[in-house]
Amino acid sequence: MAASADGRLALRVTVNGTLHELTIPGSRLLIDLLRDDLGLTGTKKGCAIGVCGACSVLVDGELMSACLLLALAVQGRSVTTVEGLAAPDGSLSALQAAFIAHGGFQCGICTPGQLVAATALLAHQPDPDEAEVRAWMTGNLCRCTGYLGIVASIRAAVIGEGPAAGAGE
Amino acid sequence: MTQGRAGPAGSGPGGSHIPALDVPEDRVDGVAKVTGAARFAADRAMPGMLWARFLASPMPHAAIRSVDAGRARTMPGVRAVLTGEDARDLYFGRRLLDRPVIAWDRVRFVGDRLAAVAAETPEQAEAALATIAVDLEALEPVLDAEASLAAGAPILHEHPERYAFLDGKRPPTGHPNIQGGFTIEGDAADLEAVFAAAPHVFTHTYRTPRQHHGYLEPHATLVWIDDGDLVHVVTTNKAPFRLRAQMAASLGLAAERIVVETGYIGGDFGGKGYSIDEYACYLLARATGRPVKAVTPYAEEIGQVNVRHAAVMRLRTAVDADGRLLAHSADILLDGGAYASAKPLAHLAVAGAADTLAPYRVPHVRIVARTVYTNTVPAGHMRAPGQVQTNFAGESHLDEIARALGQDPLAFRLRNAARPGEVGATGARFREARGAPLLEVVRREMEWGSSLPAGRGRGVALGLHHVGAGRLPLTLLIHHDGRLEITTGLPEQGGGVHTVIRRVMAAAAVPESIVAVRQVATSGTPPDPGVGGSWATHLASRATAALAAGFLAWLDERLPGALPAAPAGATLRDGRVVDAADGSTLAALDTVLARLVPRDAPVELSTVYEGGHREGEDDDFDFAACAVEVEVDRETGAFAIRDALLVVDAGTIINPVAHRGQAEGGFVFGLGGAVMEGLVLDGGVVTNLSLADARLPTPGDVPPLRLVVLPTDVGPGAFGAKAIGEAVNPSVAPAVANAIADAVGARLRELPLSAEDLLRAMHRA
Fold first, then answer.
1. Residue B5's closest chain A neighbor by CA?
2. pLDDT per position as a tens digit, B699-747
3. Is A128 in CB contact (< 8 Å) with chain B?
4. Are A143 and B669 an interchain contact pair (Cβ–Cβ within 8 Å)?
5. Fewer CB atoms inside 10 A, N or C side of chain B?
6. Is the pLDDT of residue B510 over 60?
7. Domain covering B1-38+429-440+451-467+618-765: architecture
8. Which helix (H) or strand (E) holds B509?
9. Of B38, B216, B661, the CB nearest to A149
10. What ipTM does the predicted assembly reach?
11. Contact A46 B662 (CB under 8 A)
């Protein structure tokens, strides 16, 4: 990768299906690239040290903490954020609809990360039992729900129960 | 361990039956929050925006000799550096303005600001901080509440008379290291005589630690001054009008010159009523002429913002031979930290500090609560402030008394629980005393009294929380195109208050599909108290009900004009104007509104709900009981919760999904405080500065939980709604401590309950 005169580096990355080509400082974190450079503020910065999971994103389908990744680590790769979970026509994914219907969120600050992590879970294991859901979701803290609403939402999405009003799927 | 969610959500028998409230709510904030579109303060940006960072004192108590920021001012990207000399005599706070915006003469905790930097990037601001040379002269620190009142203790605030006090006059404290407090006395004259004559007197001391709220959204703000010299403040603060008043008082501005705007709040739990960075960001915006943004780094969130008060609680209770409570005294000492700045109430303590035995009938009572200054992180409000401490103490104390008397702890509580028409220990006049029916559910659901295997034990605790009261304005805009828009200053911090508003409109036959709820800045709505204190559902539902009635009356008056052919008794149903006699549709509501409302001039209806509580009248409370079964490993002291039951007193439930979420979330919040959370200080410095070390519960920490809702229609909100958010969490810790005592006979009197402490206690026992 070539550095420009001011030490910035070229980055090509696909985010939610859109290719971006930009130059960034080598120290740029993925979380700041998403939020500040691309304006995708759905991905949240909580603890900023990889504990809380609010910044969870998918990199080539793999669950990662955007606060721990240099932006250059996603060179040539494909990133999915919460903004990329609904269908292009805006209809919600089964998980998004279930989070609304089953109390999967209250304040909403951890919700983007919860949804991204749950999306990764269902891609990895389409029919998880409750213990598997809890184990997988342990990397995403939530202070509001006590997790029961989140686990119930994920289970409901798995069994296709109870879409929320106006939701897709 | 796995489990499903047991027990139905929603109102069930007992609450008012409102068909529109039967269906689960579709949250106003739902789609925005699951798609990433919801905007929080930290998501906001402005062209030309600078980033602020702050230099914190490294010492808990020191005199400032000098702060040299000369080099910082020359660093790349730096646009302003302010030190205490630039902010002399500027203090801030929610009630007492005793915390310096930037310290100039003295620092009183590790976190007091010594300098503020604004730079083009956060990294440049951070780099500049590292070049600031600080010369401090260490002073003897006061590191715990008891030391604060010891003879010869350093006085932390030598000129309290210089501190402004909002809305009234600061009550005298009697000692310079006391921030505030209160005394509750019921028939106190006879108290000592009753103690002297009582057959049994029990005295125990309990301790609880500082705790962080654990919201995942750090405090954030963006401040700019526009061309008209209006000061704009985007903030995480949940009480925008109060922040406006606090900033006006602190900075010497007219309140009307400040516009406060709160977006979605990413977790509150009491912590978002207090703002810190807004003040210095204003000074930086003034100095640079540019917007200034600050987001508190999470380690500073935990160690330097505001925490739950650590408490030392000495309880003494007299009991007769039959196990009736005769007299009770409590000395509640709360560590307020370096400043009282984060506390909003006039007594500068926390209201729940009185609630040691609040749900019970006790004829003679004296409760003294004091908050004191120490050189530690300032303490403020956190979900059920005071109750978490005193409910642990009081419910543990009752259990100890029952066991010492050889009485069943549940029967002992039932014997003493205040019944309808009786007054609680703090003098509260319950509109409906609900302790006993909740305890009866516990008896049934836990199969109380049935035998358990060795190493297992059951515990129960009862608690209550006041349903908040106050005054709330609300405005309805009726648009030509048939949309109804409700504007409010109330922020949505997760409790669901915007959805409450839309649901109450729906219950009045105004369909959700045409109602929008929009939060507006302080410039666009009359002053309101914000959210907090478990008042939001009460006030918002009643104000909305009044607004809905106003709208229906407005419509009724104008229907003959809009629909000349309509029969008398036309009414609104499901968004249509119908013939009341046969239900046939006369017109769609939007057709009618198009005729009544000019295209570009929406009709505005407004209301003010006056829902304050008057002294001497009955008052509203949420009761809750928690019961758990634990299993203890005697070899290690490790314990696990095998079964948990939550029995909650509810009014008519407006948002059934959110109500259940608050109950479940409140349980896990309480569980965290019971068995894992607590800030660890070393020399006044918080040492467990990450969410991993401060140990919030994760999904795997949540035990099987059964929820039983016991509804009533006796609540102050619309249709008899009450509150839930702060009712549940206090009772969890004492229930667990009591279950452990039941299992192994060892008593833990300090939170968090730990295997190490239990092992020590078992060895002592």
1. A148
2. 999 999 999 999 999 999 999 999 999 999 999 999 999 999 999 999 9
3. no
4. yes
5. C
6. yes
7. 2-Layer Sandwich (3.30)
8. none
9. B661
10. 0.96
11. no
